[in-house]
């Protein structure tokens, strides 16, 4: 009985006489043929081919110049204009105190502005356990925009957060005195 050695996990796999060796290792499920090889042509010919492919890709981009950009990320990676946009985005993000991540594509979102919510545009809920509203208008929401997919996200402003914390803390303090 012969023994075959798996090149991946180094397991010895017995091969009975008259049988063909296994194509896949029963231990690690990798191919028994050996490692895959990757051939790289380091000579000058491949560099010329690569340069020619880049020129063709650039010419294709030039032909499609009139079309609108479907994806802001493609624009940002498109060359000098994209680099300028990327640098502007970095400056914007550096100025922000809080930089959320887009829930859709995980890009960092930039702060676009603040929306003020007036009392006539907000109907607060009064939870029974609290006996008062958690948040009372007027308050502000900060609007964030994703530079890649243009998704938006709003976050309660600092004063609104403080209002909620204060009201919940008061309720917890009152519950502690009663109990």
Short description:
This protein has 179 residues and is an alpha+beta fold. Helix content is 35%, strand content 16%. Among the domains are: 1-35, no CATH class; 99-178, no CATH class.
Written description of the protein model:
By secondary structure, the chain is α+β, with helices and mostly antiparallel strands. The chain has helices at residues 44-63, 72-76, 80-95, 158-178; strands at 2-5, 12-15, 110-117, 139-145, 152-156. It contains four helices and five strands, in the order ββαααβββα. The strands form two sheets. It has a three-stranded antiparallel β-sheet. A hairpin with a 6-residue loop joins β1 (2-5) and β2. The radius of gyration is 31 Å and the shape is elongated. The N and C termini lie far apart (80 Å). The model is unreliable at 65-70 (pLDDT under 50).
């Amino acid at each position: 009985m012969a023994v075959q050695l798996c090149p991946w996990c180094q397991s010895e796999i017995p091969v009975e006489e008259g049988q063909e060796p296994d194509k896949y290792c029963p231990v690690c499920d990798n191919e028994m043929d050996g490692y895959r090889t990757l051939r790289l042509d380091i000579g000058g010919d491949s560099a010329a081919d690569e340069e020619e492919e880049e020129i063709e890709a650039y010419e294709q981009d030039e032909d499609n110049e009139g079309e609108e950009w479907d994806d802001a990320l493609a624009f940002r990676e498109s060359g000098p204009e994209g680099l300028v946009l990327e640098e502007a985005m970095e400056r914007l993000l550096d100025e922000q105190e809080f930089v959320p991540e887009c829930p859709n594509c995980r890009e960092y979102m930039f702060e676009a502005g603040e929306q003020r919510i007036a009392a006539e545009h907000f109907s607060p809920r009064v939870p029974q356990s609290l006996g008062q509203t958690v948040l009372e208008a007027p308050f502000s929401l900060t609007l964030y925009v994703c530079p890649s997919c243009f998704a938006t996200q709003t976050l309660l402003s600092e004063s609104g957060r403080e209002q909620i914390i204060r009201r919940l803390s008061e309720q917890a303090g009152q519950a502690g005195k009663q109990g």
